[in-house]
Amino acid sequence: MMEKIECKNLHKEFKGDGTSTVALNNINLSFQKGEFTAIIGPSGSGKSTLLSLIGTLDKPSNGTLTYDREEILKKGKNKIADFRFKEIGFIFQQFHLLPTLTALENVLTPLFARKVPYTKIERAKEVLKQVGLTDKLDSLPSQLSGGQQQRVAIARAIVHKPSWLLADEPTGNLDTETGERIYELLKELNELEGCGVLFVTHDPVLAAKASRIITMKDGVVLSDKEGVSS
Questions:
Q1: Which residues form the ABC transporter domain (predicted)?
Q2: How many CB atoms lie within 10 A of CB 23?
Q3: pLDDT one-digit tens code per residue, 132-177
Q4: Predicted confidence band at 230 (pLDDT cuts at 50, 70, 90)?
Q5: Which domain holds residue 178?
């Protein structure tokens, strides 16, 4: 299990049509497994880009990303993908559930064709129970509310027991009350599973409940401080 993430001079620049846009400008941050970190800032501040790089979905233009001092992005595509599967769980604002699969089948998808040291179906049922959906195993996404669909997405993200849970605006499409319940569920999973959580949000009220709050603007870190739950 990976215990620490370090971003050193992490820089990301997008180029096209003769122009270039700096999304991240020499970011230096570190994260410890077990932390619950909120990343806030206006649109275009670099929050999602940072999360994408940390999750190995993209590579930086410059700088290094290390997990326990190992530069993961220097490995080949297959090894990066294997690392991502073992260590990282993703939750997105758009739930990305497969519409023709049941809740149970959606949660099972990360485990298909993978050898894991536990019974796949029992593990999927276990995490659906954790998120309060024991009675929705056979329901299709179209039969679930937005909050229920997001809980299925969360169960899918943790079914393989990742070290890190990366959430990009997971409450953005939900009403305030449901969004707060999803946030509390993430905190509960953080405490029970021991995984590190990096949570991108525009909502300062939700961010204030985190143990650590990172504020970004124009690709740089403006502040990095403890939250109320630290």
A1: 5-230
A2: 22
A3: 999 999 999 999 999 999 999 999 999 999 999 999 999 888 888 8
A4: low
A5: 4-226
Q: What is the pLDDT of residues 187-200, one digit of tens each?
A: 988 988 889 999 99
- Helix/strand/coil (H/E/C) assignment for every residue in the chain: CCCEEEEEEEEEEEEECCEEEEEEEEEEEEEECCCEEEEECCCCCCHHHHHHHHCCCCCCCEEEEEECCEEHHHCCHHHHHHHHHHHEEEEECCCCCCCCCCHHHHHHHHHCCCCCCCCHHHHHHHHHHHCCCHHHCCCCHHHCCHHHHHHHHHHHHHCCCCCEEEEECCCCCCCHHHHHHHHHHHHHHHHHHCCEEEEECCCHHHHCCCCEEEEEECCEEEEEEECCCC
- Tokens at residue 47, please? 């929050």
- Specify whether the backbone of 113 is left (phi greater than 0), alpha (psi in -120 to 50) or beta: left
Q: How crowded is residue 84: how many other Cβ atoms within 10 Å of its Cβ?
A: 17
Query: How would residue 17 be classed by pLDDT, with cut points 50, 70 and 90?
Result: confident
Among residues 126, 135, 143, 137, the alpha carbon closest in space to that of 103 is found at 137
Q: Please give the residue that has the higher pLDDT: either 1 or 81.
A: 81
CATH number of 218's domain: 3.40.50.300
